[in-house]
Specification:
The structure holds two protein chains of two kinds. By secondary structure, chain A is mainly alpha-helical. Chain A has one domain: MetI-like (MetI-like fold, Orthogonal Bundle). Chain A has helices at residues 16-21, 25-56, 63-71, 78-88, 95-101, 118-143, 147-155, 160-171, 173-189, 192-197, 209-219, 223-254. Chain B has helices at 18-45, 49-54, 67-74, 86-116, 122-134, 137-151, 157-180, 185-193, 198-206, 211-227, 230-235, 243-251, 260-291. By secondary structure, chain B is an all-alpha fold. Chain B is globular, with a radius of gyration of 24 Å. The two termini of chain B are 32 Å apart. In chain B, helix 3 (67-74) packs across helix 13 (260-291), helix 10 runs antiparallel to helix 13 and helix 12 (243-251) runs antiparallel to helix 13. Classes of the chains: A mainly alpha, B mainly alpha. At the A-B interface, helix 2, helix 3, helix 4, helix 5 and helix 6 of A face helix 1, helix 5, helix 6, helix 10 and helix 11 of B.
């Protein structure tokens, strides 16, 4: 909230920087991207993660190795993931070329360089990295459910999909909740992935608050604006985290 | 989820019905999806540039060459310096080891105090630490930059270590607290009656019991700090950068011919240490992942 441009100046200046921030089209692009990205990212990660966890829960013989394979991206840095996906999604040499070589000459897959689609390309890479984590969380949750209830329902002739849909999944609300919090927090923080994959480009089509803030602070030398955007990020995260922490800590005191 | 219909909970006969095959097919497809980028990375890093241009993304290299690997390690250009990744790799090593050790030790002490020497407001302190786990790090960039400047540590490896220690404490404390809360308080009380002091109890009783959680914490911190990019790119300069920053500089350099095999080899070198830890100690890694968000 100060007049800072290149160097911090500590005179108070009211909400001037905030007003300026909310007048920048680039900030709106960043916000919109954040919503598109985190919405899709969380949704797809959840779907894939829950689906895989349920399948893996069917007493699969190769469960150990499969689990290892699904989760290994989580051990990698977003920078490494980004490098790999940048290459795979590269229009000239990546997937597009593979399909074209199969004979579909008109096939186009240039999301990474298309300003309208680039954000979805980032979702693909993000989901690849994080969906295994959801799987691990839900598998742990599934394993802690009382098997007796499931057996009882099974004896009563309830079909397995209905057991999952009606009994098991609803009973895992806390797991959903904490997974949601972790994924949401990953999405808001997502910075490395975007920097490596698109650097916020083409233009600023894939800017997010995190990259916006960074660009303002370290490339444009507009510290005031960047601080304003960082504060807004902090408040967004707080809106999610504080109720979460509150519920976690409160139930702990009850027990 | 229709394919699960044919399986029976607790079925021991393991009939290979149609549904069972479908189940395996789906799981296998997903396995391929997760493995594909790794395969592409490895195979591309072993190809020559001509091979990349003529062959497809998924074809095996016609002639296996290790030249990109050697170049990535020894002579790839990061910015204007062409000494390869080796210097940055060692930067990361020199950064990770002290940062992991210090933050783990502080986390253990914090957890010990928060559970066995409860003081008024301990829960509030814990809540604040938890909140620290979730703060978007972008928010602290500028205050931190100023702090480092005041301390005269800006752009140095010790400065970066300090940053990682400070922001690691939240998670390490969480891990240790949730673990120590399961250790009976009577143990500490008995030792106090026998005349043992604060640190004596910590060293002689608590720490020897902590082996599993220490492994979890060390692995978690190692992965986090090794993979960090934001702090590295903000708080380090020139030859003192960690490997993730150097990797990004290689990949996003716009000069000269794009050497994809070099990019891939560099990416694998940067990812290898954490991948190795994951393969060797995956069990603990998963425990760390889930511990971060499961109630203690």
């Amino acid at each position: 909230m100060t007049k800072s441009k290149l160097l911090p100046r500590y005179e108070f200046e009211g909400l001037y920087q905030y007003a300026k921030l909310w007048n920048m089209p680039r900030w709106y692009v960043a916000l919109e991207n954040l919503f598109v990205f985190s919405g899709l990212f969380i949704l797809i990660c959840m779907l894939i993660g829950v689906f895989l966890a349920v399948l893996l829960d069917q007493k699969i013989r190769a469960e150990g190795p499969l689990r290892t394979i699904y989760l290994y991206p989580m051990a990698l840095s977003f920078v490494v993931t980004g490098t790999a996906w940048k290459w795979i999604l590269n229009p000239g040499l990546g997937i597009e070329k593979v399909i074209r070589d199969l004979g579909f000459q008109s096939f186009e897959f240039n999301w990474l360089v298309d300003p309208d689609m680039a954000i979805y390309a980032i979702v693909i890479a993000g989901v690849w990295q994080s969906s295994g984590f959801v799987m691990a969380m839900f598998l742990a949750g599934l394993r802690s459910i009382d098997q007796e209830i499931i057996k009882a329902a099974y004896m009563d002739g309830v079909s397995l999909p209905r057991i999952y849909w009606g009994i098991i999944i609803p009973s895992m609300r806390p797991v959903f909740f904490s997974t949601f919090v972790v994924l949401g927090h990953l999405a808001i923080k997502s910075f490395d992935l975007i920097i490596v994959l698109t650097r916020g480009g083409p233009g600023y089509a894939t800017d997010m608050p995190a990259t916006f803030m960074y660009a303002m602070a370290f490339q444009r030398g507009r510290i005031g604006l960047s601080a304003a955007s960082a504060t807004i990020m902090l408040m967004t995260v707080m809106a999610v985290i504080v109720p979460y922490l509150y519920s976690e800590l409160r139930t702990k005191d009850d027990g | 989820m229709a394919e699960a219909r044919f399986t029976v909970v607790g079925d021991t006969s393991r009939r290979l019905s149609v549904g069972r095959w479908l189940l395996f097919a789906i799981l296998g497809l997903f396995a391929l999806y997760y493995l594909m980028p790794l395969y592409v990375m490895v195979s591309t890093s072993l190809k020559s540039l001509d091979d990349i241009r003529t062959g497809g993304l998924l074809t095996l290299p016609t002639d296996i060459t290790f030249a990109p690997w050697i170049k990535a390690w020894d002579s790839a250009c990061v910015g204007i310096q062409c000494d390869g990744l080796k210097g940055y790799f060692w930067n990361s090593v020199r950064l990770v080891i002290p940062a992991v050790l210090i933050s783990t030790l502080i986390g253990a002490l914090n957890g010990y105090v928060l559970t066995k020497w409860k003081f008024p407001g301990a829960n509030l302190v814990f809540a604040l630490l938890l909140f620290g786990c979730f703060i978007p790090f972008q928010v602290v960039l500028m205050p931190m930059a100023r702090m480092l400047g005041l301390l005269g540590l800006a752009g140095t490896i010790p400065g970066l270590i300090l940053v990682h220690v400070v922001y690691g404490i939240g998670f390490t404390t969480l891990f240790f607290r949730n673990y120590y809360i399961t250790i009976p308080d009577e143990l500490v009380k008995a030792a106090t009656i026998d005349g043992a002091g604060f640190f004596a109890i910590f060293w002689r009783i608590i720490l020897p019991l902590s082996a599993p959680i220490i492994v979890v914490t060390v692995i978690w911190q190692f992965t986090q700090i090794w993979n960090d990019f934001l702090f590295g790119v903000s708080f380090s300069a020139g030859g003192g950068q960690p490997i993730t920053v150097a990797l990004n500089n290689i990949v996003n350099s716009s000069t000269g011919v794009k050497e994809y095999n070099l990019d891939m080899a560099s990416a694998i070198i940067a990812g290898l240490p954490t991948l190795f830890i994951y393969v060797v100690a995956g069990r603990y890694f998963i425990r760390g992942l889930t511990a971060g968000s499961v109630k203690g």
